[in-house]
From TrEMBL:
<dbReference type="InterPro" id="IPR009057">
    <property type="entry name" value="Homeodomain-like_sf"/>
</dbReference>
<protein>
    <submittedName>
        <fullName>TetR family transcriptional regulator</fullName>
    </submittedName>
</protein>
<dbReference type="Pfam" id="PF00440">
    <property type="entry name" value="TetR_N"/>
</dbReference>
<dbReference type="GO" id="GO:0000976">
    <property type="term" value="F:transcription cis-regulatory region binding"/>
</dbReference>
<dbReference type="GO" id="GO:0003700">
    <property type="term" value="F:DNA-binding transcription factor activity"/>
</dbReference>
<feature type="domain" description="HTH tetR-type">
    <location>
        <begin position="8"/>
        <end position="68"/>
    </location>
</feature>
<dbReference type="InterPro" id="IPR050109">
    <property type="entry name" value="HTH-type_TetR-like_transc_reg"/>
</dbReference>
<keyword id="KW-0238">DNA-binding</keyword>
<feature type="DNA-binding region" description="H-T-H motif">
    <location>
        <begin position="31"/>
        <end position="50"/>
    </location>
</feature>
<dbReference type="InterPro" id="IPR036271">
    <property type="entry name" value="Tet_transcr_reg_TetR-rel_C_sf"/>
</dbReference>
<dbReference type="InterPro" id="IPR001647">
    <property type="entry name" value="HTH_TetR"/>
</dbReference>
Amino acid sequence: MTDTTIRGHAREAILAAAIPQFNALGIRAVSADRVIALAGVSKVTFYRHFPSKEALVVAYLEAELARVQAVVANAAGAGTTTTLAHALAQEICRPDFRGCPFINAAAEYPDAEHPVREVVTRFRAWMTQTIAAALAVRDVADADGVARHIMMMRDGALVEGYVDGHPDRVAAELEKGVAALVAAA
C-alpha cells in the first residue's frame, strides 16, 4: 500500500467516524478528539487531513451534497416530478434521520460568510435549480417560483419528519403536497 493510499484511507476513516456522530448528535456537540478516537487515527493524521474541525465539517457537508446529488440525479432521470418528490420524501425515512444536515449546519453556524454556510448556500441553490429544471422540462408555469415553494415544503417536511417521529406519514404528505402544487401551477 502506498503512502497516498494510506492517507486516503485515513481521510475516509475520519469522515466515516464523523458523519454518524454529526448526524446523531449535532456538529458542535462532537469534538475533534471524539472523531480522532473513533477513527483510530492520531491527532497529527487528523490535522494533516483536516486543518480544523470546520474543515472536517465542510468535508462532511460536501460528502452529503454528493450523496444527495446522486439520489436526486437518479430521480430526475426518471422523468417525472412524482419520482423527484418521492426522492425528496425518502430522505425523511432514512434510519439515521435527524433532520436536514444542511439546515442543522446553518443553525449551528449563523455567520453567512462562514465556509460551512457557503456549502449550505451552494446546496440550497443547486437543489432549487435542479427542481426548477425538472419542472421546466414538464412545462410547469413559473418553474422557479414553484421550485422555491417545493424547497420550503421540503424544509418543513424534513423538520417535521424528525420532530414528529412519524417520517413515513410526513414523507407521504410531502409527496401529496408537491403533486398538488405542480398540478395547480
